Structures are given as C-alpha cells and as structure tokens.
Amino acid sequence: MPGDGEAGGDRTVKPGAIAFGLLLAACSSAPSDDLSDGVCELPRELREVSAIAARPDGRLACVQDELGAIFTFDPAGKQPTSREVFGERGDYEALAVVGDVFYVLRSDGWVARVQRVDGVLRVAASVFLPGGHKEWEALCHDAGGRRLLAMPKIVGGDRKSERELRPIYAIDPVAMVALAEPVGAWNRRSLVDQAAARGIALPTRTTDKGKERIVLELEVSDIACVPGTADMLLLSAADRVLLRVDFEGRLLGAVRLDAAALPQPEGLTFLPDGRLVVASEGAGGAGRLVVVPAP
Q1: How far apart, in whole angstroms, are the C-alpha atoms of residue 48 and residue 64?
Q2: In the predicted structure, residue 196 carries a pLDDT above the cut 90
Q3: How far is Cα of residue 76 from the mean position of the Cα atoms in its chain?
C-alpha cells in the first residue's frame, strides 16, 4: 500500500523479491513471467512501452509510442496480451483508464477519449492541452477530483523562473475541456532545497571542487494520484527518481530507481491490490514492469 511519505535514506529500487478499426488479436502467448516476484518482462510488442494504467479487473492497459493501439497485459501471467487499434500511428505517451473508457495523450498535447462504439474502439472526443509546452508525457485520472491531470515533460517560458516551474493541468473527462491555467505547480529549485534540508535522497553529482550536489532535472514522464490522499507521484525518467508531493508544493518523499531494474522508466500505476508498478522501455532487451515502494 502507499507509504506515509516520511523522509528516509537512499531507497534505490533494485530487481527482485494496420488497418483502422477493430483489431483484437493475441500478440503473444500467455506470458511465461508474472509479477509474483515483483519483476515481469513485457512481450516484444511492448518493448517501447510508454504508459500503463490499471484496469478494474487487475489487467494493465498499455500504449507504446508508435502505434495507435491499446494493449491489454495480464500481470498475473494467466491471459495472453491483446491489441486493439483505435487510430493512426503517432507518438502516444500517456494513458488513463476510467471504467471501460481510455484517455490517451499524444506528445503534442492532444488528448483523446477512446471508447467502444458498435463493438469497435474509436476516438469519441478529443482536446488539445494549452500551448507553450513541449513533449507532453504524463496523464492520470484523479478520481477524487473527477478530472484528468496532465503534465508536460519540457516546460516553456522566456524567464528562468518560469522554466523552474512544473505545472499540472486539468481536463474535464466528460466535456473534454482543458483548463487554460494550471491547477497547480511545483518549483524544481524548491524541491531540491527541501530534499537537502530534510535528508531526502535525490540524485547527486560531484563538482570539480569535490562537493556533492543534488541534481534534479525533473522532466516528468508520468504521474499518479496516491489513492486515499491528495498527494501526487511525479516520475522523472532522466533522474530515475519518483517524488511524492502535495499541491501546496511540499516534497513528501522520494524513491530512487535502479538503472539495472528500470533503465528507462516511462509509466506507473497503482494496481487494485495497492502495489505500485513502474514500467520501463527495453534497453537492448524487453520492456519491464517492476513493483516499487511508494515514497
């Protein structure tokens, strides 16, 4: 289950304990691996997995950054992976699931509501997120707020102070309207200062003068709402770190992700049993799911 957000030491996670329309087909045999030991390899079709989202039945909906398709993967290893096309090829980066409806985010800020119409997955409605940012990669469903939340990976702005902010935007999933102004923002510099003051372990580097400094790019590749709280998880692939924050701008905790376990962490989701799973693209091998502790 999600943790209490208290600061701790270095909690590095290591491995261990195309035709448009309907295309619903087995992509592979039932996976030989599962998440029982906390690590699971994805089928080859998901080597470039870019997002995952838990479905109500415990299976995972997945997208990868080339195909306009929803993949369904069983982390219990009991059912074969399936693929259903909803649109054209594109750079799809994030995914949220609300009941039997999917919301897909493309890197240019286009968000589509994908649902079944006459037995076929189709784009039923769509909206563009506010301009000025590049490479949108993060999307999740905020059940408590009855909204979708999205964050850009690359933040725009002419001033350095603007580029220090990591804004988050809301979308009405029914009306498919995106608010023009962010509903919150985190200051990267403030998070670094908070980590240093409270002893929360973040990535570091050694300067030419031999001093150790915290390094946090915070280019957010995915987000998740922590169940039962108003807290958010921010996943930064470049830093291989998972931050827990609140909407007041506070850093509540962090987990550093091991490169061997998760060479390119791109997506995260809470399973119905409360476990937090992070997905990584393959780096010379298969994509992977790893159960990690929530900070």
Answers
A1: 5
A2: yes
A3: 21
Degrees to nearest 5, angle at CA 65 with 138 and 220: 25
Kindly report the CATH number assigned to the domain that includes residue 259: 2.130.10.10
pLDDT greater at residue 30 or residue 128: 128
| Structural domain contains residue 21 | no
Task: State the pLDDT at residue 72.
Answer: 96
* pTM greater than 0.70 (yes/no): yes
Confidence at residue 10, expressed as pLDDT on a 0 to 100 scale? 46
Residue 118 domain-assigned (yes or no): yes
d(CA 258, CA 267): 15
Please give the tally of structural domains in the chain.
1
**141 Cβ neighbours under 8 A, 6+ residues apart:** 53, 96, 97, 98, 103, 147, 148, 149, 173, 225
Nearest Cα residue to 109 out of 92, 126, 128: 128
Q: Is 238 in contact with 260 (CB distance < 8 Å)? A: no
pLDDT recorded at residue 24: 38
Percentage of residues in the chain having pLDDT higher than 90: 73
Residue 293 lies in a domain: no
